[in-house]
Each structure stands twice: as C-alpha cells, then as structure tokens.
Predict the structure.
Amino acid sequence: MNGWETWLTRQRDTRERLGLQRTLRPRGAHDDVIDLAGNDYLGLSKHPAVRSAAAEAAQTWGAGAGASRLVTGTTDLHGELEAELADYLGWPAALVFSTGYHANLAVVAALAERARVISDAHVHASLVDAARLARAEVTVTDHNDVAAVEAALASCASPEGAGGCGACGDGGCAGKPTRFERVVILVESIYSVLGDEAPLAELVRLAEQYDAMLVVDEAHGLGVRGDGRGLVHAAGFAGHPNVVVAATLSKSLGSQGGSVLGSPALIDHLVNRARPFIFDTGLAPAATAGALAALRILRDNPDLPASVTERVRGLADLLDVPAPAGALLSVPMTSPQEAVAAQAACLEAGVRVGCFRPPSVPDGISRLRITASAGVSDEDWSRAVKLLLEVIR
C-alpha cells in the first residue's frame, strides 16, 4: 500500500469512528419506500406533463445540449424557460445553468471578484465555494444577525483616516481609504438545515443604504412560499436593483439545473464573465423542457404550496419541534451515530428520510431531515407520519 492509499484508509477509518462515513445507495425506479428524503417538494418530477415534455425534448433535441451556451448549447427551450421564469418571478431577465450549484458559483464569482463578501454563517456550500472562487475578502456573520451585517457594511464604508475598511481585523489598514468598491451580501431565503427564513426586509434596507448587492438563494423558497414564487417575491422585493435571486430547478420544479434572476445588465455580465457559465455545457434539453412544464403547472396552480405548508406544520407539532419556514423539517439527534441509526430504522419501516451530520450542519448538531412533499398520497403520508412517530419517539 503506497502513501496515498494509507492516507485514504486512515481518512475512512476516522470517518467510520466518528459516525460520519457516507455511502452511495442506488435506488430502484419503482421501490415501495415512501420518499421523504428528496427535494421534489411538489411531486412534479413524475407529473405526466413534465415527463412527457422531457421525453419529447430528448426526442427532438437529443440527450444533451451539445456544447456550452455560448457555442451551440443555447436552444429555443432555454430562451422559453428563461423568459417564463423571469415573468413568473417578477424579474426583468433570467439565465439558466446546468445546476443550481453552478448558478450560485457564477453569480457570486462574477459579482464579487476581488470584492468584499459578507456571508451568513449558514449559507449553502455552493455560496461558500463561490466566494473562494471570486478570491473575495470574506466576512462571515452569525446566522441571521442583522446587526453584524450592518457592522461589516459600515467597516467597508469607513472614510479615509477613520480606521480603514475593517476587513483586516487588526486595524492594519487604518488611515487608508476603503479597498472595496463593491460589496456582496450572501443569504438564503429559507435555510435548509434549521428551516428558518432570512430577515429580508432588514437586509434589503442595508443593501440600499450601503449600495451593496444582496444575493438571495431561493432554492428552498421557490414553489413553497407565498403563491409559489418564493420569499423574495412574497416580501415585495422582486425586481429590486440591490437584489439578485438564484434559484434551483431541481427542487419544487422537479427537474435539474439552476437560474439567476436580475437586470438585463446583470445577465449580460454573467454571460460574459461568469466562468461556471462560459465553460460549462448547457442544461440538457430534457431537463430544460421538464422544468418549463413544471413551472407552468406551478403558475396555474398557486394553491400547491399550501399543501406542503399544512403537512410540515402538522408533522412539526406531532414531533414537538419548531415548524420550518419551508418544506424541510429538522429533528435534532444527540449524535451522528443516533441520527444514522434512526434513519436506518425509518428505512426499515418503509420511509426514506435524510440525515444531516457534520460537516454538513453549520451548528454541528446531527439531525434527521424530513421533506414534506405534496407528491406523496394522503394514505402514504398518514402511514409515514405514524412510522416516524414510532421511530423517533
């Protein structure tokens, strides 16, 4: 065994000892397990219209886009999806990416290159990686701490001779003008681990005051909050000049891919400067058409999110845990080992749930992750709730 194999073996042994080892477990297309672990919040992934649209697109355009969007990978389908997403969510323009991860990477890397980033401690890993890709100077603030965000913004705006930008932490730039012409604030509308929502009104006020750009990841808000158009729209900030929205197509829309919504100038900048967009193959036609069909179903059925809210709040009451702002319910466990054991017991009983363990959880507390999906029948939902209560209690 060479040095690398020895190192890899030790890494695995450490993960095993701490209860942090993860394993891929392929599932069949037609297993009889009730799925409360995925992100298909509205059950649209298997909707007949979505399946049909995806199949027809694959027959028409082929299995893949064939190239990056700037070469030949942009199809009429991409244009339709971008136009309808922008119209539905209340933005002037939209740009579609191959994944939600790429959407977050692209928008932050293109806006925050060598700039200042103020990031909530609980943002998704894709936003963390995006700030690194941008080579930005990053300040991480405590979760949903508006005062900390304001203090970080004020430090960026410090006038010459008043203590510098504050980014160096020790006053090393005191007496110098601010080094940051641009500041980007990173948050999620609804956080996937704790299930709480961002204080958008206060953050937008700060973005206006300091002329910062607030990037909001709506991955868990789209299709769940308000009439389905997400928390930013419900709060009245769609189209705001100091706000940019990133959203995924793989959760409520049941497909794959991601999108960024903002001004035409922003989209033009991303097309020309965002490396995760420029050098990536375009979203596959089947996924594009599937997301478009799902979007139209959501648009025509604004009552769909209410069923998710009803289910997640009812289950939270039964389990005596706080009700989340979105579709994901977190049930704290005392250790990673207990979380894994509870997940296995649920699966043995016929219900698939998720499991959060370090380092995936920002506060270090392992949890079961339960998705309240509108795609599960009433009968299966009732059976799943009964089984969950038996296992967790």
In short: The mean pLDDT is 92. Residues 19 and 337 are 5 Å apart (CA to CA).
